[in-house]
Amino acid sequence: MNLTYAYIFLAFAIILEVLGTSFLKDTDGFTRLYPSLFVLLAFCICIYLMSHTMKFIPVGITYATWSGLGIVAITIISVFKYKQIPNIPTIIGLSLIIVGVTIVNLMNDIDVK
C-alpha cells in the first residue's frame, strides 16, 4: 500500500462512517435489528480502513480529515433526510471546517515513500 491507497482507504472510511451515522437515528436506541447491524458493520469496517490509513498518514491528519468531512457530510444528509436546515453561523462554521481540512492535508509533511 502507498499514500494514494491510504487516501482511498480514508475516503471509504469516511463514506462508511457517514452512512453508519446517518442510519444511527433509525436504530431507535439499537432496538431495531437491521439498522443496528448496518451501523455496527459500517463502523467496524470504517475503523479497520482507518487503521490501515494510519500506516501512511499521521493520526492527526487522518482523524482531522475523517471527522471534519464526516461532520460536513452528515449535516448535508440531515438537510435531506431529516429536514434539519442549518442556520448561517452553522454554515460559516462548516465552511471553516472544510478550509481547515484542506489546509491540514495540503500543508502537511507526510513522508511519501
Fold and architecture overview:
The N and C termini lie close together (10 Å). It is built from four helices and no strands. Helices cover 73% and strands 0% of the residues. It has helices at 3-22, 33-53, 59-81, 88-106. By secondary structure, it is mainly α.
Element layout with pairings:
Elements: H1 3-22, H2 33-53, H3 59-81, H4 88-106
Descriptive tags:
mainly alpha; flat; 73% helix; 4 helices; 113 residues
Quick check: average pLDDT?
Answer: 93
- The number of strands is 0
The N- and C-terminal alpha carbons lie at a distance of: 10 Å
Ranges where pLDDT stays below 50 over 5 or more residues in a row are none
Biggest sheet layout: none
- Indicate the proportion of strand residues: under 5%
Helix content: over 70%
Shape: flat
Using only C-alpha atoms, the radius of gyration works out to 15 Å
Number of alpha- plus pi-helical segments: 4
Q: Provide the number of structural domains.
A: 1
Structural class assignment: mainly alpha
Order of helices and strands: HHHH
Task: Briefly say what this structure is.
The chain is an all-alpha fold and 113 residues long. It contains 4 helices and no strands.
